[in-house]
Amino acid sequence: MFAPNFFQMQNRSRSSFAFMLDDVDKALLEALQEDARLSYNELARRVHVSPPTVAQRVRRLENMGAITGYRAVVDPTVVGRPVVALVRMKCYGPRCITVHPELLDDLPEVVEVVRLTGDICSVVKVVTTSIMELERLLVRLASHGETSSAMVLSTPIPWRPVLPG
Questions:
Q1: How far is 158 from 152, CA to CA, in rounded Å?
Q2: 51 versus 3: which is more confidently predicted?
Q3: Residue 121 Cα to chain centre, angstroms
Q4: Under a CB-based contact definition with an 8 Å cutoff, are residues 108 and 129 in contact?
Q5: Less Cβ crowding at N or C end of the chain, within 10 Å?
Q6: pLDDT greater than 50 at residue 2
Q7: Distance from C-alpha of 49 to C-alpha of 87, rounded to nearest angstrom
Q8: How much is the pTM?
Q9: DSSP secondary structure string for all residues of 46-97
Q10: Which DSSP letter does residue 12 get?
Q11: Rounded Cα–Cα distance for residues 124 and 91 (Å)
Q12: Is 40 in contact with 54 (CB distance < 8 Å)?
């Protein structure tokens, strides 16, 4: 199966691509989420197709937006940022971080922002070097709206791969 052309892709919602994934695509996605550093040869061995087929399929998965990037998962404690917190935000208008995420571009402590429905607009995940730095960051975030924070004590279920439907 070949990837649709660009025009066809523009006229489809991203969710419709899930129906275009076969078992090999799903196995590739699962393996790459487990270890994105696997070679095409190793991926081919695991999913029982040739390395050129793996290369073509991975490129297609990237082009269709199923694979959006590759990154290392870093333990914040090991790199000197042992304070991890989730900050719930209620913000509206021109200072809202979900409407203008660029307002947080100068805050490397902010590692993720998730936009939500309901009585809060977002949850901001932050990693800091100390409680004092967390307090300074919370004051800065409060300039964008109402905040409520919770420190992360542990992560019993870490990040998991997304299994294609």
A1: 12
A2: 51
A3: 18
A4: no
A5: C
A6: no
A7: 45
A8: 0.81
A9: HHTS-HHHHHHHHHHHHHTTS---------TTTTT--EEEEEEEE--GGG-T
A10: S
A11: 12
A12: yes
**Residue position matching structure tokens 């989730």:** 86
Side-chain half-sphere exposure of 146, counting CA atoms within 13 A: 5
Q: Which two tokens stand for residue 131?
A: 């409680």
Q: Which two tokens stand for residue 126?
A: 């932050």
Q: What percent of the chain has pLDDT above 90?
A: 82
Residue range 23-45, pLDDT digits in tens? 999 999 999 999 999 999 999 99
Indicate if the pLDDT at residue 12 is higher than 60: no
pLDDT digits (tens, 9 = 90+) for 51-94: 999 999 999 999 999 999 999 999 999 999 999 999 999 998 88
Half-sphere CA count of 73, side-chain side, radius 13 A: 9
| Structure-block tokens of residue 119 | 């009585």
As a whole number of angstroms, the distance between CA 94 and CA 106 comes to 17
Radius of gyration (C-alpha) of the chain in whole angstroms: 20
**Element (DSSP H or E) covering residue 114:** strand 110-115
Furthest C-alpha separation in the chain: 55
Query: What single-letter amino acid sits at 134?
Result: L
